[in-house]
Amino acid sequence: QVQSQVTENGELIFLNCPSGQKFISEDNGNTWENAIERELVTFTEKNYVIAAAIAKDGTLAMVSMESGDDEGEKKYPLYIYDKNGELKEIPLELPGEDMHLNDLTFGEDGCLLASVMGDTSVYEIDLQNGSSKKLVDIPDRADVMYCKDGILLCGTFSGIYLYDLKNSGFIEDKVLDSCIKENKRSVEWTGGGYTNFTFLGEDHAVYIAGETGLYRHVIGGSTIEQIIDGSLSSLGDPSHNIMSVLPSSDTEFFVMFNDGS
Fold it and tell me: For a surface tag, which of 202, 230, 244, 253 has the fewest beta carbons within 10 Å of its beta carbon?
């Protein structure tokens, strides 16, 4: 998978999780640097990273798939790679023995949120002691999660769910629900990219990117507008699968595809 973030100091970051390659732009995407961090690359050479998230301060959370003590057994430990380049494992506690972390995102306050395999809930992970607390139940496992302006977005196979973190309740949006259902714009990780990718922007806008283009919908609004036509952009290329989308502004977006472009 590929993770992306706009850090608090304005850097744009794309991280290739399996390889540890980190691409950074300090000039709003005009130029990109392949920032080689040896400890991170060494870690990914020895461990298969299945999920990750980047915080606003540059802290990186990673879930690795590793061999367990018994033959054929797998374990999925959580690691933190902080902004000082220090790597440490977090002793994780989940309520079910067969559960493991599936997707991660950092909240705006720096807390780590996670969807899990074996459950459809979203959990808050305490990075000091590894304990987990159920935040909310959603109908399906989230394959994409995104936090902005007090809203947690969860992209799933059955739809896109919006959770108000301050008021602890779902935000209903019939226009968004109808668009996803009628146009088959569900969000699903296929192993080589996403069927559609979704994220939050300024002014409480939900974005959905897929082969037909990029769409924008303001939460509670009556319309969904197409702002990029897939047939006129790389989004419509059937050989390209979306790995991540990074918004640098309301009018400029960077997309990472599965072929590395």
Answer: 202
